[in-house]
Amino acid sequence: MLEDIKISRAIIGRYSEDLINSLESDVAIVGGGPSGLTAAYYLAREGLKTVVFERKLSTGGGMWGGGMMFNQIVVQDEALSIMNEFGIRYKMFEEGYYTANSVESVAALTLGAVRAGAQIFNLISMEDIMVRGNQFVGLVLNWTSVDIARLHVDPLSVQCKVVLDSTGHEAKVTNKLVEKMGAVLNTTNGSLVGEKPMWAEQGEAATVENTREVYPGVFVSGMAANATCGGHRMGPIFGGMLLSGKKAADLIIEKLKNR
What we know:
9 helices; alpha/beta; single chain; 11 strands; eight-stranded mixed β-sheet; three-stranded antiparallel β-sheet; FAD/NAD(P)-binding domain
């Protein structure tokens, strides 16, 4: 016979175990969009303790909606190897343009990251950062519902060796660094350069180029990289996002292995 209280005890108990185990990690990823999920997969596969904090109910960022709620996305040749690795099906539209179902793509990226060993927490928002000296050391978190309701509820903190800001257009981690500390970033002007208007070709290339460590222990990927370093937005083409996540993982793995 099913007992309601046991169902509650199972959910609270297991979730608490996962959360306590994630208070310290090798890599914390803020934002479970396409670049964050891709990075989580490669980082966890390498054996690094990887935790993703997603503020929304679902992962995937803007990929779910495709272009203007037509649930198809476009990828280019360079990203097909990553699509193949995740088992995402695609069709050639014409030379250099491939389409994929956005729902399948998000589901595959999420499942791939989890099965590689990444821990994903949804409905949790980054409220603040922790820095010691000039080194990033952790995140300050709260429930997204607390943030939305503007309740006066104190947050909790987690520690990590490095953080990946994959929060999209908002670039929330790097914004906090500049806002709270006046931090000098690894950008052309030493601060947040800001996102440029839509230009798919330039934006795709810049997304990968701008993926980097912008402050000791702080990396950026996806649109957060372009918002931080001054790249164009690119719309519903996602090859650059996947490649950015892979590059971010490679850079973080190199840094932690040489630490």
